[in-house]
Design a protein that fits this description.
Blueprint: H1 19-28, E1 32-37, H2 52-58, E2 67-69, E3 75-77, E4 80-85, E5 91-96, H3 110-121, H4 130-134, E6 136-142, E7 145-150, H5 157-160, E8 187-193, E9 197-202, E10 216-221, H6 225-233, E11 239-240, E12 257-262, E13 267-272, H7 282-291, H8 294-301, E14 306-308, H9 331-340, E15 347-353, H10 357-371, E16 375-381, H11 384-392, E17 400-405, H12 426-436, H13 441-457, E18 462-467, E19 469-474, E20 477-478, E21 495-496
Parallel strand pairs: 1-10, 15-16, 15-17
Antiparallel strand pairs: 2-3, 4-5, 5-7, 6-7, 8-9, 9-10, 11-19, 12-19, 13-17, 13-18, 14-18, 20-21
Helix pairs in contact: 7-9, 8-10, 12-13
């Protein structure tokens, strides 16, 4: 189990005593906040793009879901007041909240739920979780009752319906959500200065106007780690969730700030393009894994904030097993596997790295490790939009890349041969289908273990570590999530002390 802890600054505040109450009073009157983000989203429609930065802005703020995932991972009602699940786990009956309107004045009801889910699973859908919605049949009973029939057993469905891909969109405005999102949440888009910042303002038409304390929240996009720290120290940013781990030490003993280290279900991996030769040879992929010391990557790439993993699954998740022993650090074995595969050394590969500090720091360590076994890696640093369009999407122009997958339940990506790393295994597809249709918890956990072992044995990717993402905030900021089962900034929960 990942050890979760909060590091609080404890140094005494050295200042004039009379200034403290005045400072507290000033903060108490604050009704705005500036939040830092490492990456700018390519758009604001989470049903059309996979970037987690979209959710960090819109989820639960502008666009809402039937259920809500809380910071402790528990599921509570949101647009649904309650739900019932049939004994066979295939029929879900949702009672919807009454009196809810979209920000364009249109009513929220069962018809809009059906529209949203049918759209998410339709032929033209580009929703990242299209498979989930394609398996759902949505039936309107009355304006405030909707029944979901699932073709497969999926005990995680209430959780999945709280993820950003399950947001309820309004039919008339859905097509424009990338630039002008319209939802039922407590905030609406005010302005977006691309490349710099985005501002949300409190929506006066929200069903519970007293729920949100902040009238305005501005997101500032700062990719560079040094610039992130500078913005906090200068007072230009009030809170920076998921900041670069390298910034943490300079804030731990600064009485102006609080440092929070929380747990996640994220998986930081070095993805390997299984389509490219000689990476399509499992012996070559196993050689790459054997050449990389996960502990060295955690220290050098994540500044110690991580737990080693051996598959696309993390400690704390249902059915987790430790697979780190399947592909242990063994440079001599790496050289032997490359020779067995007939690889002529030096093997030249390209590593494409997006902007986050963890990716580029980890890349430095891995390039050095691979060089020791005769693999020469050329690093190509790209901007986030380019990584999304050319590495993750489009032509998949990469050999190696480093990224964190932040969704808790995303093993299903390995059943998609068109996914960016190009894994195509009928055996895994069959196994995953069994996982999806098994209702017994113990049996399902066993199958999840089998899936983890299969991905490790196939060396699909170099599974590196479960990251711990730090948050740094000014003293007085309230409502920030400590643990992060999903990546979101729940603005209605935030305020100043």
């Amino acid at each position: 189990m990942l050890k979760r802890r909060t590091l609080l600054t404890t140094a005494a505040i050295a200042t004039v005593p009379l200034a403290l109450p005045e400072l507290a009073l000033a903060q108490g009157r604050k009704d705005s906040m500036v939040i830092g983000m490492s990456l700018e989203p390519p758009g604001l429609d989470p049903t059309a793009g996979a970037a987690s930065a979209i959710a960090e802005i819109v989820q639960y703020n502008i666009l809402e879901t039937l259920t809500k995932i809380n910071s402790d991972g528990k599921i509570t009602p949101l647009l649904a007041e309650s739900w019932e699940i049939s004994p066979d786990l295939k029929t879900y009956t949702f009672k919807l909240r009454r009196g809810v309107k979209f920000q364009n004045g249109e009513p929220f009801n069962a018809q809009t739920v059906k529209f949203a889910f049918d759209r998410a699973g339709g032929d033209k859908s580009t929703n990242k979780d299209k498979r989930t919605f394609a398996n759902l049949s949505t039936h309107v009973v009355d304006d405030y009752t909707v029944v979901l029939l699932n073709k497969e057993i999926d005990p995680n469905l209430p959780f999945l319906l709280g993820q950003v891909t399950a947001v309820i969109v309004e039919p008339k405005s859905a097509a424009g959500n990338a630039t002008q999102p319209v939802g039922t949440g407590p905030y609406k888009l005010d302005s977006w200065a691309r490349g710099s910042s985005l501002t949300l303002v409190k929506w006066d038409g929200f069903r519970n106007p007293g729920e949100a304390k902040l009238k305005k929240v501005t997101f500032r996009f700062i990719a560079d780690a040094a610039a992130q720290a500078a913005a906090l120290l200068a007072g230009d940013v009030d809170a920076f969730p998921r900041i670069s781990t390298r910034d943490v030490p300079q804030f731990q003993h600064n009485p102006r700030f609080e440092v929070i280290i929380g747990g996640t279900r994220a998986k930081t991996i070095m993805a390997i393009n299984n389509r490219h030769k000689p990476l399509d040879d499992v012996r070559v992929r196993r050689a790459i894994l054997a050449a990389v010391d996960r502990k060295a990557v955690i220290e050098g790439g994540a500044d110690g904030f991580g737990v080693p993993i051996g598959s696309h699954y993390v400690p704390g998740a249902p059915g987790y097993i430790d697979t780190t022993g399947i592909n242990p650090y063994d440079p001599a074995k790496a050289k032997k596997l490359l020779a067995e595969a007939g690889v002529k050394l030096p093997l030249e590969l390209t590593m494409t790295l997006p902007p986050p500090a963890y990716a580029r720091q980890s890349g430095e360590v891995i390039v050095s490790e691979l060089a020791k076994v005769g693999i020469t890696v050329k690093v190509q640093n790209v901007e986030w939009a380019q990584w999304l369009s050319s590495t993750f999407g489009g032509p998949h122009n990469f050999d190696l890349t480093i990224v964190s997958h932040v969704e808790p339940f995303d093993l299903g990506n390995y059943t998609n041969p068109n996914y960016y790393f190009g894994y195509d295994s009928k055996a895994f597809d069959t196994l995953y289908d069994k996982i999806k249709t098994t209702g017994d918890t113990a049996e399902r956990d066993k199958l999840l273990g089998d899936a983890q072992k299969m991905l490790a044995v196939d060396a699909v990717n170099d599974f590196l570590y479960q990251p711990q993402f730090p948050t740094i905030a000014k003293k007085g900021v309230r409502g920030l999530w400590k643990d992060m089962p999903i990546f979101c900034n729940d603005l209605a929960a935030m305020s100043w002390a």
